[in-house]
Amino acid sequence: MTNHITTTWLGDMKFESTNPSGHNLFIDAGEENGGKGEGYRPKALMLSGLAGCSGLDVAALIKKMKLNVDSFKIDTEANLTEEHPKFYDKVAMRFHFYGDDLNEKKLQRAVDLSIEKYCGVMEMFRQFAKLSIETHFHKK
């Protein structure tokens, strides 16, 4: 299976990129780099892709395991190297689950399955970055 993305220059530093879902997105540089900040930054978008990939896995497993979770979020921080080409060499992901009836063992299993088995974006990141993953549980 292949994905086909078309990214079209809109002038200045702004681009519009298609997506197989049919929802397009805009990419733009910040004002400090000649853009107007009217879109996603490419490297930050990679982190959103990583968190989104793993988040979709975990959400599917929450449903499949019939777990009670009021909400969850993933905080992702990445360290950018100093020299060009600058890339992420360290990435930290923190999964936060909220609810009164959290099955911590099963939720941890869902996170582990995503990061070890299902999330292809995670596997891609492993090729160039050291990953650290934490799971936190919060009673409401």
From TrEMBL:
This is Osmotically inducible protein OsmC. InterPro entries: KH_dom-like_a/b (IPR015946), OsmC/Ohr_fam (IPR003718), OsmC/Ohrsf (IPR036102).
